[in-house]
Amino acid sequence: MKTLIRLSITALLFTACNTSNERADAYGNFEAIETVVSSEVNGKILKLIINEGQNLKKGDVIGLIDTTQLSLKKQQVIAQKKAVSTKTNSILSQIDVIKEQKKKLVFEKERINNLLKDGAATQKQLDDINSQTDVLDKQIESIKVQNSTVFNELKAMEKQIEQIDDQINISILKSPVTGTVLEKYVEQYEIAIMGKPMYKIANLSKLELRVYISGDQLSKIKLGQEVSVLIDKNAKENKELKGKITWISEQSEFTPKIIQTKEERVNLVYAVKISVKNDGSLKIGMPGEVLLKPFTAK
Prior knowledge:
By secondary structure, this protein is an alpha+beta fold. It has four helices and 14 strands.
């Protein structure tokens, strides 16, 4: 009986040695940088060709919001601009007429100056010519001020057209980033509202494992350091992946509930992010473990 007990204990220890895993240095969950894409304009969604799980590249055209009202508004501003441009041409014509009048007065002034030298003209005649010339100069300046006002009005209209063109451009929906569509909030033919979310996208080619380490471990890590990341391969085995530390919190915080032992949960810890290349096995929210040692390919 004693022999049987000793054999059973030996077998149990042997099994324990074979199934024991190296204790992880930190625990956490995988996360990705998620981008919630919202509409930048109001209008009916005429086309939307995205589905949850679809992979998109930055700049891919994925839809179109109705631009009819924007196009009509642009045509209206263009028509107004043409009408104002006509005013400018009329003002410039007035200046040309006054300049011709002034040209004649200048010629007449020279003639009177010559006559005045010979005593054939009076000073009053010369003063009258100078007075008329001054009046014409003031008229030209006044018209130039009017033209400046009209010119500023034209510039304002040009800016309005640029704004409308920009709104038309952003009505063509394009993916702002490369990634996978996680959630879709609107459907084709619904009304898009400026600022209202349309879909959520995230780049899943690399995920970040957010873990928490104790103050004692802080001196053992640094930015850019390679570590081993473990995820569940099956009920008994782990899968090892290469990770790189990309961020270390500058402030400590209380340990979150995800830490496995009660002793560790009462300590202050530091948050750390570890970048891991996704081979397709990683999912957002999946738990992971970290060994503070370099990855060893098997």
